[in-house]
Amino acid sequence: MIEVFAVGGFLEIGRNMTLIKYKDEAVIIDMGLHMDRYIEYTEDEDIEDLTADELMQAGAIPNIKDIMKYKDIVKAIIPTHVHLDHVGAIPFLANNFKAPILCTGFAGAFLNEILSEHDFKLNNKIITLNNNATYKISKNITVEFINMTHSTPDTVMVAVKTPEGSVLYCNDFKFDKSPTLGEKPNFEKLKKLKKVKLLIVDSLYADREGKTPSESVARELLKDVVLGVNADKNTIIITTFSSHIARLKSIIESGKKLNRKIIFLGRSLSKYTQAAESCGLVRFSDQVEIVKWGSKVKKKLSQLQKEKSRNKLMLVVTGHQAEPKAVLSKMAYNGFFDFKKGDVVVFSCKVIPNEINERNRKRLERQLEKYNLRIFKDVHVSGHASKEDLRDLITLVKPEHIVPAHADVPKSEAMKKLCIETGFKNIHLIKEGQKLEIK
């Protein structure tokens, strides 16, 4: 029998953490933040020096009290990618388990960036593996990484293999056959998986018809705006997810075509790009100036607005969700930058749908409009699978049981409906604190 414990990320969006137990051994997959609660508590998307107890009380990290009885049998902690709703709770919770962290190179590099910046002392050894690695944890448990595409590089699906079958954890992903950075999804590995007892699957867009477009589409959308807008006399300001290295690469390409000086401003942008460089994904620091800390960001913006060549600037800034402490918010509200009529602001992102983000973004957009700026929104494609991608996945791996994850109740119900119409009937909607037994 395989036991699955929903620690977080089930019937909710964020705070992802799952414990999978077989006999007297277990692995934990993902250990993330609940981003809207975290931002509400800290006013920032970046990692802050806080305690696990206060974040748990705020509902911003998984509540691990129910699985602490298994702490001595946990053999590995496996973050699937670098997004904070999957990896952000590791500095606060991982020391409760005497287990190594198994992850891809980018995730390992990003964790090291967090640890080097803060006072976190992680006792867990970080072991980096390639995107299609197989790692034997014990006689009874082997984990297999399966390279996947998402809105950040080095994302993997994880197959936890036992003598009784496998649990395939697919959270988050999309099927992008034309990625702008990294390899295509490893469909061959998915086809070769045998006896998938349980599929835990990203269901965020199970209610969205069709297939999620490729990142190459987003690159063209971005080019169409940045190269097509008449901004010869104005500054171009772009904000996107700091972890979206492929998108940042496309932004740099467009900026270079316009012969603009490109400057990255903000702490999270610096951390993600430094991590991407240290593991060999990109080489941005040769092409752009990167300013990390708030005081230096303020000083840099003050210098730039005095320059006569403002029309030769492209500023890439944090604050795509209008986080109060992010650079774009400080530019808009705190006078960090003297906007000029006709300056261009591009949101290369979607608003993550929750009350806090939507409220903050509406407020920020109203503030930016006061400066008579040209604002472009939703220059973006998602990193999450839509309905037809999900149909292809479950048809390909043919799981005996399916658990929707990374989704609220309506989206989980949409995933259940899709599974049933595709011919799969053993669908389980479980929530935080519940256990599922698969025989």
Question: Tags for this entry?
Answer:
six-stranded parallel sheet, 31% helix, Metallo-beta-lactamase, Chain A, 19 strands, 14 helices, six-stranded mixed sheet, Rossmann fold, alpha/beta, 2 domains, 22% strand, 439 residues, globular
Q: How do the helices and strands line up, and which of them pair or pack?
A:
Layout: E1 2-8, E2 17-22, E3 25-29, H1 35-42, H2 52-57, E4 74-78, H3 84-87, H4 90-93, E5 101-104, H5 105-117, E6 126-129, E7 134-136, E8 142-148, E9 155-162, E10 165-170, H6 187-192, E11 196-202, H7 215-228, E12 236-239, H8 245-257, E13 261-265, H9 267-278, E14 289-291, H10 294-304, E15 313-317, H11 327-333, E16 344-347, H12 355-369, E17 374-376, H13 387-397, E18 401-405, H14 409-422, E19 435-438
Parallel strand pairs: 3-4, 5-6, 10-11, 11-18, 12-15, 12-16, 13-14, 13-15, 16-17
Antiparallel strand pairs: 1-2, 1-19, 2-3, 7-8, 8-9, 9-10
Describe the structure.
The protein is an alpha/beta fold and 439 residues long. The protein contains 14 helices and 19 strands. It has 2 domains: 2-211 and 383-438, Metallo-beta-lactamase, Chain A (4-Layer Sandwich), CATH 3.60.15.10; 215-376, Rossmann fold. The chain is globular, with a radius of gyration of 22 Å. Helix 5 packs across helix 9 and helix 13 crosses helix 14. The protein has a 6-stranded mixed sheet with strand order 7-8-9-10-11-18. It has a 6-stranded parallel sheet with strand order 14-13-15-12-16-17, with helices on both faces. The mean pLDDT is 94. The relative contact order is 0.15.
